[in-house]
Amino acid sequence: MARSKISASLMVAVLAGMTLAGCSTFGGGESDRRNLERFTAEEIYKRGEFELENSRRPEDAVYYFSEVERLYPYSEWAKRALIMQAYSNHRAEEYEEARGAAQRFIDTYPGDEDAAYAQYLLALSYYDQIDEVGRDQGLTFQALQALRAVIEQYPDSEYARSAILKFDLAFDHLAAKEMEIGRYYLKRGHYAASINRFRVVVEEFQTTSQTPEALLRLVEAYLALGLNDEAQTAGAILGYNFQSSPFYEDAYAQLRGRGLAAEARGDSWLTNIYRQVVQGRWL
């Protein structure tokens, strides 16, 4: 789990006395929430960190961090509280609120050292929802855009490497969804529709782990349609790039069973891919 430099720098000092200080300064209960004006920005902020570390409800910490921002809007503590609002909301799985706080930090403090962390939190707020999306991939695209911003705008930050790894996984996720739909069509004999899905994977997601299977399924679909040239060309690309893959072994067996070889033939979109990938000819 990534940490902001703010929380890291304060946490060591704060945690040593937080249990006592947090409880002695604040009596607890709703009365604290109604009378926060009598506390300093630092005291309210530290109470937020206390709640974050000791409570099972990150939203309790959000309350205190947001009050720092409300009561002391132009203070250094307000800036720190804003990034911690984003982090606490993310822990509470309140992703829209996390994005809102992170974006406010980026807009208000674009040159701050924690702007990279705010952008990373914004990206995580999309990324961590990907598995909940089903067939609607809008959040996946937004995660990719936000992760790309981390990679391109903050390439030397400690978050860039994690953003790259998550970008690749999100990219693979999109390709996997295309494969899922393509397989659905293929099993039901809707070959043209399945080809369209597998083509997207080969053309737009060719660096993902889904490409070998996509080429195999193209071989199957084209053979089913009697389009042997396209099937052979898909097999040739598969053999060139993934010869040790079990997907190639399957494709080779299917082609050989029809008396066909895995070689580029005809003049289709796959032939263009073959020229680019295998022959290095881009024109």
From TrEMBL:
Localization per Swiss-Prot or TrEMBL: Cell outer membrane
Membrane topology annotation: Lipid-anchor
Residue ranges of every copy of the Outer membrane lipoprotein BamD-like domain listed in the record: 40-234
Main location class: membrane
Keywords: Cell outer membrane, Lipoprotein, Membrane, Palmitate, Signal
Stored Pfam families: YfiO
Domain of life (superkingdom): Bacteria
Residues making up the signal peptide according to the UniProt record: 1-21
Family label: Belongs to the BamD family.
Description of how the protein assembles with itself and partners: Part of the Bam complex.
Primary role: Part of the outer membrane protein assembly complex, which is involved in assembly and insertion of beta-barrel proteins into the outer membrane.
NCBIfam families in the cross-refs: OM_YfiO
Protein name: Outer membrane protein assembly factor BamD
Organism: Paracoccus spongiarum
